[in-house]
Amino acid sequence: MSKIYNFSAGPSTLPEAVLKQAQAEMLDWQGSGVSVMEMSHRGAEFMSIAKDLHDDLRELMAIPDNYKILFLQGGATGQFSFIPANILGDKTKACYINTGAWSEKAIKSAKSYCDVIVSASSEDNKFTSIPDRASWNIDEEAAYLHYTPNETIHGVEFQTIPEVGDLTLVADMSSNILSREIDVSKFGIIYAGTQKNMGPAGAVVVIVREDLIGKAQTTGLPDIFNYEKQVKNDSMLNTPASYTWYLVGLVLKWLKAQGGVAAMEAINQRKAAKLYAAIDQSSFYSNPVAVADRSRMNVPFVLADDSLDKAFLSAAKEKGLLALKGHRAVGGMRASIYNAMPEAGVTALVEFMADFEKTHG
User: Fold this and answer.
1) Residue ranges of domains in the chain, CATH in brackets
2) φ and ψ at residue 136, rounded to 5 degrees
3) pLDDT tens digit sequence for 256-298
4) Does the pLDDT of residue 115 top 60, yes or no?
5) Residue 124 to residues 10, 107, 121, 128, 287: CA-CA distances in angstroms?
6) What does the longest C-alpha to C-alpha distance in the chain come to?
7) How many other β-carbons are positioned within 10 Å of the β-carbon of residue 357?
8) Is 130:158 a contact under the CB 8 Å cutoff?
9) Whole-structure pTM over 0.85, yes or no?
10) Spatial distance between the Cα atoms of 361 and 284, rounded to a whole number of angstroms
11) If you write DSSP's letter for every residue of 326-353 in order, what string do you get?
12) Catalytic positions, please?
């Protein structure tokens, strides 16, 4: 079998260098005599890991000083509820943009906490584009506007940060964080599960502006999901997902070694362009997403004859190209090409697709 390339949408592929370092340090972290998995999260060794983790993320994303960084549990799905619980304050409404499955889940959860205004939706066109900004219905009295910059399942991505005036902007960046440069100061909250573009599953990063902390609806909200309490305890109100923190930290150092987010964005642009070109130049494959709204991270595509889907996946697996089956909600295929997917992996996929078309087209 050729080299393995894992196109899973999450948990996703990790940089080989990170896995090798973790392997080398598994039994003895830097002469400490113990694995990171065995360390006290209050000990000096782990506290140094935690400090590097926070410092490196702040540096890579140029996070301003008036933002706090939290690493919490419950995944991005937990934040669907904990964001309104934490920042609604005395307001009763929140605006949401619906561009796919993860937007829908966030909307459903928020309805338990406030009146949800769906300011725009692309449901009518099966989430194959982003609603035109001019059509958005934004309530200026809302507490915030929430959107999902990249929809993992449908393969739709915002190419720019939407302008929402003085309204607090909240973004679920689970599947495109650190893949392109952004201006963090335009957001009130950025959150992302770690299992797609930052490391393994087990944690969610929440980057929250200081003025939004301290507004929590304390009735019924567990302390571990209260931003104010977690800020005061450095995300360690309870025992954190310590090994996930360590691995995310290794990924961040790897990213710095690649030249940072700007360098990675250029690589991601090349990878996506190559794969979309292979799809667009073929009559055998197609991508349903509006060209201007295509994701650089998650590329869905379908075969002209879906009876060949099983053969395609089987042949791909034999070539070492794994996890290409599309989400059950949309079918077809999906290639997730996050930061850790090397350009060689995309090249191998494109070459396989061409060979499969020659044989079956």
Assistant:
1) 24-257 (3.40.640.10), 259-360 (3.90.1150.10)
2) -70, 140
3) 999 999 999 999 999 999 999 999 999 999 999 999 999 999 9
4) yes
5) 27, 17, 8, 9, 18
6) 63
7) 18
8) yes
9) yes
10) 7
11) PPTTT-SEEEE--TTS-HHHHHHHHHHH
12) 102, 172, 196
